[in-house]
Design brief:
about 150 residues; alpha+beta; Heat Shock Protein 90; 6-stranded antiparallel beta sheet; 3 helices; globular
Length: about 150
């Protein structure tokens, strides 16, 4: 898959919903909107209310924006990886990068507010180190098991 492609899983026979959405994009400001739209559209197809869609949009925007602003040195051509699926009635989202991870002493004007916002908006949230980069995992209760 190239750095600008998006994928969706094929629906099961008789199921009109897509079981997952994901892809990877360049770590540029324009990717924030693209990832947000893909995941919010997916969430709505799986029953997200307007309020929940707004929470998902804000949390996803914060996670992708953190990658764009902090994951890569300015000379690096970084990538944003994203995926979402529904498991037992919950929307699960992963936003990841291949960057340098959280760097101690790295300048940040946000003081971690974006991560605290994601934690407050989601039902569950975790940050995991990857061999290269970080992964932000979020879970949102859709309210109905699909």
């Amino acid at each position: 898959m190239t750095t600008t492609e998006r994928s969706e899983g094929a629906p099961a026979p008789g199921d009109e919903t897509t079981p997952w959405v994901g892809g990877r994009l360049p770590a540029h400001a324009g990717s924030v909107r693209t990832v947000r739209r893909a995941i919010v559209d997916f969430a709505r197809r799986h029953g997200a209310t307007d309020e929940l869609a707004g929470d998902v949009a804000l949390a996803v925007s914060e996670a992708v924006d953190n990658i764009v602003l902090h994951a890569y040195d300015t000379n690096d051509e970084g990538v944003v990886h994203y995926a979402a699926d529904v498991d037992d009635g919950d929307l699960e989202i992963v936003i990841a990068d291949d960057g340098s991870g959280i760097r101690e002493g790295a300048p940040s004007d946000g003081l971690g507010l974006g991560l605290r916002l994601i934690a407050a908006l989601s039902n569950d949230f975790a940050i995991t180190a990857r061999p290269e980069g970080l992964e932000v995992w979020m879970r949102f209760a859709l309210g109905t098991a699909l």
